[in-house]
Every structure is written in structure tokens, then in C-alpha cells.
């Protein structure tokens, strides 16, 4: 039987070095998590480095059904976690994306849940006193052996960890590393944000506060090379329907809302003065009905992650240079001329 282990690792000198240990997790073929062909243990690179995988590399020829997104549909078996610890799954995933991917699952309690993985994915382990923030390794309460009957019995070093957030890496039962699609830091424009609790990640984000006008110089914006205009997902996933269970189709009428964002301490009027080169909208609200399909055996919350149209560069405000990222909600124009938010709907599984 082919098994895959997920171990804690720190990327040092191009190699993966163990840093912390946890219980055994598994990926399985059945909804009772009894027929399992993939074994998982916890792993980490240390923030902000991340590890992403091509689904085919991990699950091909494992007798696991495919997903509609072009990936695979395994069940994940989560044992008991320490208080304040979580396993997070993101798919699709890419080091260029803020947050490294789209949240599709978050587990803090024991569960056997199906994952709709797309062509790429990543897993994260995080621990903190009250949430999954970048807490110190001292917040992890135990250093358990992992592996059990799957043959992974080593203890990993808790003291090597410097933060409480780890990206996950994969190995097979023989200890051979499965080649990741990517290892490295997220895109250079992504800055670490203040820590968010799991509840924050599963909440509709509030609109940003009003900033005072800073007398920015008209049309002074100069984009960085190759960063004049690009699309990325918003930093948060908006939960629209809670506790849905498949199979079934669910109509979403909850209003989706997305405001402009900027990493600089300026307001919307300032952004308009800078002249970023594309049309800016302060806030877009979308109440267009949408039907979301939940497959057999799936349960969770329906989430929506808006797309943003962004630019990174610099301009002049109050005689001083300001630099950073500016984004506007990305929209789709309907035949009647109205605008709806562009983005991705997903089922967010959690426990």
C-alpha cells in the first residue's frame, strides 16, 4: 500500500528539516475514513515560506475519485488536536496568491470530511492560545510521536520552530519526499497581516474605515515593472450559507460586498488623485442570486472569495513618496449593464 506522510519541516539550504510532531492524519477513500491509502503527519516551513503540491503528484493511481475542479476528492481523517490548533486546507494554491490559496477547510475538532481538491493544494498546521496566529512554539502543548502503524516513529524538535504557523510537506511511507510544485515565500507584494482567528477567516469582512484626504499629486502613480495591472483573490473568504449538506443545490441570496483595498495609509479620494490607470470603485455590492451545488457526502459552509484588480507602485502625497498596493473590486458586466462581483465560490469544510 502506498502511503503519504505529512511532516513538519523547515526549509533550510534547499532541504526539508523536521521541526515539530503531532498525531497521525490520513486521507481516505470512504466516508468513514477506514479505507485509507494516504497517511499524514504535521509539517512546516515556518512563515512565510510555503509548500504547494500538484494533486496528481500526490493522488494519481490511488483509487481516489476525481473532483470537478480537475483534482481529487479524498476524505481527510483528523484526530484530536491540541486546544487552539488547526489543520487548514487551501485549494487551488500558489505562492503568488495572498494567503497562498483559497480556504476550503479548517479543522480544530476530530472529523472525517471530504475535500474537493483542485489541481493544486496546500495544507497548513497552526497553533496558538486562542487562534491560529503566528504564536511561538511554546504554545504547542505536546510533542507526540507520529506514524503509529504506518511506520513513522521519530520525534521532531519543538524548539526548532519559531512561529505557530506551518506549511505542510509530504513524504511517502519509505520517507521519500514527494516533489512539491512550489517551495518558497509568497509573492513579494504580500506583506504579513495582523493575526486572524479562525472566526475572522470565516466571517464577512467589514468595509475599510474612511481615511482623511492627504493631498496626493494628480496622476503621480508609477507602477512597478510588471505590476501595473494584475488580478488576485481578496484576503478573506465571505461565508454566505452555513451548515449545508449534500447532495443538493442551494440558492445564495446573501449580499456579497467588496471594497477597495490599499496597503498604504490613504483614502479612496487619494487613490483617485494618484491615477492608477484603471477605473476604481470604492465598494461593490452584489445581491444577484447564485445556485451552488453540493455533492454527495459533502457538508460545510458556502464561501465566496472576491477577485481584486490591483497595481503595485508608488506616488506622491503631501510632498512625500508613498508606495504599496492598490486594489479595486473586480466585476463582471451583465447584459442589462449592472455589475456583479467576480470571484470563486467554494465549500468550506470545518470542524
Amino acid at each position: 500500500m502506498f502511503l503519504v506522510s505529512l511532516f513538519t519541516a523547515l526549509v533550510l539550504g534547499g532541504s526539508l528539516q523536521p521541526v515539530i510532531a503531532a498525531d497521525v492524519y490520513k486521507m481516505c477513500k470512504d466516508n468513514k475514513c477506514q479505507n485509507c491509502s494516504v497517511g499524514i503527519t504535521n509539517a512546516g516551513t515556518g512563515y512565510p515560506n510555503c509548500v504547494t503540491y500538484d494533486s496528481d503528484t500526490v493522488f494519481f493511481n490511488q483509487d481516489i475519485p476525481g473532483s470537478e475542479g480537475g483534482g481529487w476528492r479524498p476524505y481527510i481523517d483528523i484526530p484530536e488536536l491540541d486546544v487552539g490548533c488547526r489543520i487548514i486546507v487551501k485549494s487551488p494554491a500558489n505562492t503568488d496568491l495572498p494567503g497562498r490559496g483559497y480556504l476550503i477547510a479548517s479543522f480544530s475538532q476530530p472529523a472525517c470530511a471530504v475535500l474537493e481538491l483542485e489541481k493544486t493544494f496546500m495544507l497548513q498546521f497552526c497553533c496558538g492560545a486562542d487562534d491560529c496566529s503566528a504564536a511561538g512554539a511554546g504554545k504547542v502543548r505536546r510533542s507526540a510521536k507520529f506514524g503509529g502503524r504506518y511506520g513513522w516513529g521519530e520525534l521532531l524538535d519543538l524548539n526548532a520552530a519559531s512561529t505557530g504557523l506551518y506549511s505542510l510537506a509530504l513524504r511517502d511511507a519509505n520517507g521519500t519526499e514527494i516533489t512539491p510544485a512550489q517551495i518558497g515565500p509568497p509573492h513579494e507584494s504580500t506583506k504579513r497581516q495582523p493575526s486572524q482567528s479562525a472566526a475572522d477567516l470565516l466571517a464577512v469582512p467589514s468595509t475599510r474605515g474612511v481615511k482623511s484626504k492627504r493631498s496626493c499629486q494628480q496622476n503621480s502613480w508609477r507602477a512597478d515593472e510588471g505590476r501595473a495591472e494584475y488580478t488576485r483573490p481578496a484576503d478573506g473568504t465571505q461565508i454566505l450559507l452555513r451548515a449545508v449538506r449534500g447532495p443538493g443545490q442551494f440558492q445564495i441570496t446573501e449580499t456579497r460586498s467588496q471594497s477597495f483595498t490599499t496597503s498604504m495609509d490613504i483614502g479612496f479620494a487619494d487613490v483617485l488623485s494618484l491615477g492608477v490607470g484603471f477605473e476604481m470603485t470604492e465598494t461593490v455590492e452584489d445581491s444577484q442570486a447564485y445556485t451552488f451545488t453540493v455533492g454527495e457526502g459533502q457538508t460545510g459552509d458556502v464561501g465566496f472569495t472576491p477577485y481584486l484588480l490591483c497595481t503595485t507602485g508608488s506616488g506622491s502625497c503631501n510632498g512625500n513618496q508613498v508606495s504599496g498596493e492598490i486594489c479595486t473590486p473586480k466585476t463582471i458586466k451583465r447584459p442589462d449593464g449592472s455589475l456583479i462581483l467576480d470571484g470563486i465560490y467554494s465549500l468550506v469544510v470545518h470542524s
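Residues 1-23, 133-163, 188-212 have pLDDT under 50 and may be disordered. The radius of gyration is 21 Å.
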